[in-house]
């Protein structure tokens, strides 16, 4: 772990950074860099709805090719499935010996992008959403980030990646900046998204809600018990760890947890998790994501419609 005192800002000072994309992560990184004294350009397609937002923040907005051509460091922060086409478009404009940056290793790790051999290829991956990255920075704090290098053409890629992380404010976080690799960041992040926090946890909440409702429990009460208390759990785990969380709840809750947890998350669940991890280590997920994007996201659209029409969502709205 590296904190502010360990990170040298010199490698990024006096250099221009192009942020390609101005979504949640793009906005936060562009503003944090600017407020750290770094010259920033934002690359957006002509007519982008985000152009006005970026200009309103006082940022210079150019096309992706123009921004890339002016920059020493070009960071691709559009959705992963769009990055190969964006790289193909801007590659001829990239300066010799420039750095290409990412916040997620998927496209490089699975070979969807093959960067030019003269480029440094770095990754700084904040471990949270852009809105929180920006808020923590403005509060004088920081968000933990992973740093990695996939290609060190100049011999300075690591120094640059760490300086970039410092400019984002990540050195201020308790755990600071953690050295990683494109492979480890990609595989662990995809596994978390699919098998743990964003995949399994919502499915578990829905299953618990449906079990109570099917047994005759009022849907509002089922929502409060199975979904609403998740924030309490998350806050306790964040503040005290899992062991400390158990100490903070009642004996009744803790005893129930010791009986129920191992029965629901048993060896079979771990076996399926291991199988999923094995699948994610291949490039099948990356190919499927590209195919989903190419057909205008039919699976994602169907799942969003299903979630919006669910009884759980109706119970949530009734409590607002």
TrEMBL record:
Mg(2+) 2 binds at residues 189, 225, 229. It catalyses: (2R)-2,3-dihydroxy-3-methylbutanoate + NADP(+) = (2S)-2-acetolactate + NADPH + H(+). Pathway: Amino-acid biosynthesis; L-isoleucine biosynthesis; L-isoleucine from 2-oxobutanoate: step 2/4; Amino-acid biosynthesis; L-valine biosynthesis; L-valine from pyruvate: step 2/4. The keyword Amino-acid biosynthesis applies. Residues 1-180 form the KARI N-terminal Rossmann domain. Mg(2+) 1 binds at residues 189, 193. Residues 181-320 form the KARI C-terminal knotted domain. Keywords: Amino-acid biosynthesis, Branched-chain amino acid biosynthesis, Magnesium, Metal-binding, Oxidoreductase. It holds the Pfam family KARI_N. The keyword Amino-acid biosynthesis applies. InterPro entries: 6-PGluconate_DH-like_C_sf, KARI, KARI_C, KARI_N, NAD(P)-bd_dom_sf. Its EC number is 1.1.1.86. Signal peptide: none annotated. Substrate binds at residue 250. PANTHER family: KETOL-ACID REDUCTOISOMERASE, MITOCHONDRIAL (PTHR21371). Belongs to the ketol-acid reductoisomerase family. NCBIfam families: ilvC, PRK05479.1. This is Ketol-acid reductoisomerase.
